[in-house]
Amino acid sequence: xxxxxxxxxxxxxxxxxxxxxxxxxxxxxxxxxxxxxxxxxxxxxxxxxxxxxxxxxxxxxxxxxxxxxxxxxxxxxxxxxxxxxxxxxxxxxxxxxxxxxxxxxxxxxxxxxxxxxxxxxxxxxxxxxxxxxxxxxxxxxxxxxxxxxxxxxxxxxxxxxxxxxxxxxxxxxxxxxxxxxxxxxxxxxxxxxxxxxxxxxxxxxxxxxxxxxxxxxxxxxxxxxxxxxxxxxxxxxxxxxxxxxxxxxxxxxxxxxxxxxxxxxxxxxxxxxxxxxxxxxxxxxxxxxxxxxxxxxxxxxxxxxxxxxxxxxxxxxxxxxxxxxxxxxxxxxxxxxxxxxxxxxxxxxxxxxxxxxxxxxxxx
Length: 364
Known about the structure:
- By secondary structure, this protein is mostly beta strands.
- The protein has helices at 33-43, 92-101, 219-229, 284-296, and strands at 20-30, 46-51, 59-63, 72-76, 81-89, 109-110, 119-124, 131-136, 154-155, 179-180, 206-216, 232-239, 245-252, 259-260, 264-268, 273-281, 300-308, 314-319, 325-330, 334-335, 342-345, 352-354.
């Protein structure tokens, strides 16, 4: 392996790492606060509560239909800004460990007024200063919404016996291959009835925050910091033409438990900034319906719909009203401790397998 390949700094030992359980929520500040509120609602988020109504620091918390008490916190401010991402930790001892062992960590502070409450420690990247918030003790919300998983009819090869009871065989020329049919139309259609696989039009149904990404100015230092202090493990590493790693997609190392392909990614660039925050939606139907909804509302699509290579999720990126990028995604990969780390050359070909051409602004 090339000496330029970065390996996690394990000097503190796994037992000294802060244990992350899941990604939870993000913080943004918006100068045009109410305009952004309309976008976030059309994006598929639901307002939970407001603080400091009518004041210069008014704040709105938004949720999805999942169990997290909130996914997005928007605060009114003079300038648009990204305020960091939160992860839930395994125990309060992880908060205490962070304050003791991580030089850039804050003291433990109470999440007053936030849905679900809880305690938090804020950690800053040692080079670029972006924030990751560690949360413990939040009360999860009760999921009241019901989302029924749809059945799909897929074209399939003959099974052990075909439709005539004969042994499995090749289809003859011109013969129609049977489908793996799991559903059918109602025998007696009812006027105004909704077909079984038709989703109502409107915003996408957002489930959870899935991941966020940053541009960093010192990839090696950031990589060693975040993998050295936390149970973050690279799923993929991408290197430049000289063989130096410049991008990573990292998952939460939960042993044999399957987790999302990545919860945190970053790449080296000339200046630090948030690249995007990504939200999982219920299914592909609601994703595309949400795409059409945002188009009709006059918002600006960044890139999508398409399918990524790394993580393989179906993506749809949008500019919000402050020109931050937010993503809807479905059907991402899951990995666990036995999943090997991949390492490839960074190139546009590694970004997507189908979809529109990559827009130049997405690569900033």
